[in-house]
Amino acid sequence: MAQTQLQAAREGTVTPAMERVAERENRDPEFVREQVADGQAVIPANHNHDTLDPMIIGREFATKVNANIGNSETTSDLETELEKLHTAVHYGADTVMDLGTGSDLDEIREAHVAHSPVPLGTVPLYEAVKQAGRPEDITKDLLLEIIEKQAEQGVDYMTIHAGILAEHLPLTDGRKTGIVSRGGSIMASWMEAHGEQNPLYQVFPEICEIFAEHDVTFSLGDSLRPGCLADACDDAQYAELDTLGELTRVGWDHGVQVMVEGPGHVPMHKVAENVERQQEVCDGAPFYVLGPLVTDVAPGYDHITSAIGAAMAAQAGAAMLCYVTPKEHLGLPEEEDVRDGLAAYRIAAHAADVGTERPGARDWDDALSEARYAFDWREQFALALDPDRARSFHDQTLPGDNYKEARFCSMCGAEFCSMRIDQDARADGEMDALADNETDLETSPAAEVNRPPVGTHASGDLPPMADHDGVDRPAEAGDD
């Protein structure tokens, strides 16, 4: 039987996936192996995901970003779901989670595995509810059956809501928003109906065996994450975290890679506390956080409220950030929402990597600043996180090609442009010339995600995917 990345790492083997990760991160392959062997990093890479371009999640590596996609009962079109996948990868998602609850789940999931160069995550509990009809009708056998099927289909990591226990439920009674995790509410409903312990907790060793066979990575679900600031860091949240620490060690004992999910809604002054506590309780297993949202007052702008918390969490040691779109709490995100959410989170991740002084991370910033001062508009656009949007905003007021050579933009105009005034003064000898030390991104030690352009996962083996106009094209991440 093929080994998991964790088992191979423990035996001293540097796998091809580790070699690829080392290349993308500009790190020594042996360091990658050591981090995986110690459980401090994970490489989600199901043996059956043939089109995968491996990546790594861990606090010692560049901060990663996940995008959630998926259908619902009212949106169940395969082509639409594949377009969501393409949009997510195009705008820089390092992993994608399919949270679909609508129709044709198997067909969509298999298509995602076939078309995705990034790791694919799922929540098998959702399919269990759909098959059973009601949460209370779920059985342990059904859970294991669905988990095994999804593993065989090639899913790289799964959220397993095994940490919420019967004894935790009374701890939620004083909350403002109760249990806001979809998986958590399902498991709570099941336990209330049956008077038994969480079935996912009961069969956790069996799940480990399935995961070890296919090298599926655990993403231990935070079923009791806070859904508002008032509920952050309460007894319920931290009691479940203690259980997640226990399950982390059980997964490792089975040779399975583990990362741990985190909140949620957390005020700014408690964000670092959440990360530090998780790292201690879970022995350094990678922390994968949703946001966190640092205020509850901005529906429609929660990609911003959450990106603030996400940057703080990443600086404190969170390894992967789950994006939030402007539609959070309001509706199912569409393509533009995915774009805005990923932009906010790529900014948060990169800002945190600059803040933690990842090797070469700031080189991207320096290169763009140099292009800006030189009024090299085309280079500015090329270096931008979202080149199309940067170019579009500039061209709304100065669309002509001649303005690509102009020493001003429409904000200040030629007369009041500070950089033009500064340059002219230096040219006239009134001030010394600036240092001429142009940044070379080609030789930068930065990880791939901290260099432009975003969305550059290797995708040469992927099947064609229909473009917006229905014409087939290669599914190359990062194309237009």
From TrEMBL:
Keywords: 4Fe-4S, Iron, Iron-sulfur, Lyase, Metal-binding, S-adenosyl-L-methionine, Thiamine biosynthesis, Zinc. Substrate binds at residues 68, 97, 126, 161, 181-183, 222-225, 261, 288. [4Fe-4S] cluster binds at residues 409, 412, 417. Residues 466-480 have a biased composition (Basic and acidic residues). Pfam families: ThiC_Rad_SAM (PF01964). InterPro entries: ThiC (IPR037509), ThiC/Bza_core_dom (IPR038521), ThiC/BzaA/B (IPR002817). One of its GO terms (molecular function) is 4 iron, 4 sulfur cluster binding. Its EC number is 4.1.99.17. Its cofactor is [4Fe-4S] cluster. Zn(2+) binds at residues 265, 329. Residues 435-480 are annotated as: Disordered. Catalyzes the synthesis of the hydroxymethylpyrimidine phosphate (HMP-P) moiety of thiamine from aminoimidazole ribotide (AIR) in a radical S-adenosyl-L-methionine (SAM)-dependent reaction. Belongs to the ThiC family. PANTHER family: PHOSPHOMETHYLPYRIMIDINE SYNTHASE, CHLOROPLASTIC, THIAMINE BIOSYNTHESIS PROTEIN THIC. This is Phosphomethylpyrimidine synthase. The lineage of its organism: Archaea, Methanobacteriati, Methanobacteriota, Stenosarchaea group, Halobacteria. The gene is thiC.
